[in-house]
What does this fold into?
Amino acid sequence: MQLYLPIADLPVNVFLVLAMGAAVGFVSGMFGIGGGFLMTPLLIFIGITPAVAVASVASHIAASSFSGALSYWRRRAIDPALASVLLCGGVTGTTLGVWAFTQLRALGQLDLMIALSYVVLLTTVGSLMFSEGLRALMRTRRGALPPRRSHNWIHGLPLKMRFKRSKIYLSVIPVVVVGIVIGFIGAIMGIGGGFILVPIMIYLLRVPTSTVIGTSMVLTLVTMLFATMLHAVTNHLVDAVLALILMVGGVTGAQFGARAGQKIRGEQLRLLLGLLILSVGIRFAIELVIQPSDLFTIRELGVSG
Amino acid sequence: MTRTLLAIVLVLLLGGAARAERLIVSVSNHRVTVTPNYSGEELVLFGSVERDATTPADRTAYDLVVTVRGPRADMVTRRKERTFGIWINTDYRQFLQVPSYLALFANRPFDAITSPEIARRQQIGLNNVLLTQRVGGDYADVVPNDAFRSAFIRLRTQRGLYREDPSAVTFLTPTLFRTGIPLPGEVPIGTYEIEIKLFANGAFIGKTETAFEIVKVGFEQFVATTARHNGLLYGLATVAMALMTGWMASIVFRKD
It folds into this structure.
């Protein structure tokens, strides 16, 4: 069934988009991530312009992270204090990101920037996660205990604050910085940033695993809601019809994904996620390096009359 | 050279007689509406060549060239080049106020209808249509085989937005004709001008114009205008929709 998208200005197959939403939702529920890094490339692949894809995916991630955050809230797995400090940075980062997005779009280098950030970010995070998962898996094979976590330089920074529910005592500086970075790349790349935020919070900030996913979902939710608003006000590129189809598919898929995720062990899950992120990154890298089938592209600067 | 001269003389001679034929045309639909299930459409243009007393008796074989132009827009064509091992956009050309949709139809090959000189002046064929570029501080069209111009036409053609078909116009009788105007799904919204040019014995003898419009209606129109004019409200609505969907999902799937 074809449906005409009013902002993207092209007809798409509803079932195809629903299926894409559900598939990405499944993965996101399974790993506890937003899944924007999969959704945006898929939308670009079916012919939606990168700008509209990035702007519309933001609201889709907001929907799936809201349903996730609600269930984590009921389980008291969200640290409100930590979330608020992260949000201060997140909102600033998102504002900067949407501004940079508009500038790059005017320069004609937005597509390149999106592709480059995907390559750098996904290959780095993917390979780190993959190797870490592999090490953890070997450790459990050998029956050794995981290494004790020691404090690092981050814990020597001033402006310390006590985060009760996470049971940590930490400087607010790194937390705000992390929020800014995630908000910025999220707005530019059309991703929630959960897949970067969760490892950073675990390894750098030493946030316990009990509150990490729920808290990161709150940040994702707010930055994505904010990004949707900013994209709607400044670039007029949010396609609500497209977003709604993605949301419905996404939240449904996420529920089944979450159930599947509970059956897999933590290290294996990280290994799989690392592999997935790495392969998306490599796919983008290949696209940049090999000669494109067409060297020319056209962009319309707005129809008049 | 002599052929060109001859053609010009012929045009001058026939210029006075140009009003001898009248073209009467109509499109099957003057208002194409984009609805949720819109995925392209084909319009039909039909018409007839009306002869009157002043029409030379020996002039019976007519040729027609139909040009359909969509709403005009500025477009940028960019060329990728390999820099530091990756392919990035480097050079670009700006096309000023070029048609977003362009179709040229005729009843036989353009070069059989008229001379290259007249074809160029009357903009017959994609190679002859005026596509103004900004080259430095100048505004001009360039030679047809310019890399950016031909890439531009090629890419628009691939998307079905530019087309030329020298056999699309069919004469049902010597004076009655019709042609289909295919519109792809991703067709630009706006007013479309149709120009019908009449040729006889290689000479341009008259033209007429008509138009149709493609409009979004109902829901599509509402969404598009709200997004453009009430960005804040639109954003709030999208945000509310996202929260509703997320909340409903957590309710629906809560028990299991």
User: Anything to note?
Assistant: Residues 9 and 305 of chain A are 17 Å apart (CA to CA).
